Amino acid sequence: MNGHFTSGGLQLARYLARPAGRSDALPGLILCHGFPIGPLDARQSALTFPELIDRIANEQRWVAMTFTFRGCGTSEGDFSLQGWVDDLRNAIDHLIAEANPTGIWLVGTNTGGSVATCVAADDPRIRGAALLSPRADFDDWAAQPRRFLEHAREIGAVRTAGYPRAFDEWARELRRFRPVDAARRFAPRPMLVMHGEDDESVPVSDARRLADAHGSAELRVIHGAGHRLRHDPRAVAVLLGWLDRQKSLVA
């Protein structure tokens, strides 16, 4: 990461890239990582994202940024869904202050895509959103919040002893934010929804629910792909092509 910004009194690590030799106003992009899964713990979140940010900035001429949400990477704090929503809102403000982009697009993988949908729905500054392997809701977490909290502790997304102080409120947030409802509010702004046909973590039906709620989203199901679309060259090619088309929408 090459910098920081503040969210709720926490220092969050970010990586910002501009195309070489360009100082004029450019479209802006924020790439959001997902909730840590599998063998990767929270401290390793988004390690490969700066590589993709550099590619988007230099090959496609965007001012592009990624960051690690609270409780992940070297960012401070502990996971909460409201906290992640606040972090993305502050990331948008930070990118505007740093680069004054002509518009902002959000790209999110997994939970990051779901959070991006919730934030974008109510922020008119967001011109479009691309979601990779998103979840349509957080109902599975909300159904067993204490078990989910323990999992978050095990992977390092919750690090502070005694956190959260108000467990019931922390748990309620898992039902408060509903990406499938947010997708409906986000329409008719452009939305790309991609999902692996063989996703082992989030069913492909979640992508279809999000696309159907939006009404005019571009839905792409990648044959034979799993959950980590960020590492599937076909999915990256679809994303870069969609971003290239989005630039024509900049006024």
Automatic annotation (TrEMBL):
Ranges of residues in domain AB hydrolase-1: 29-237
Database matches in Gene3D superfamilies: alpha/beta hydrolase (3.40.50.1820)
Signal peptide start-end: none
Alphabetical list of Pfam families matching this protein: Abhydrolase_6
Protein family per UniProt: Belongs to the AB hydrolase superfamily. FUS2 hydrolase family.
Stored PANTHER family: DIENELACTONE HYDROLASE DOMAIN-CONTAINING PROTEIN-RELATED (PTHR22946)
Record's protein name: Unannotated protein
Organism per entry: freshwater metagenome
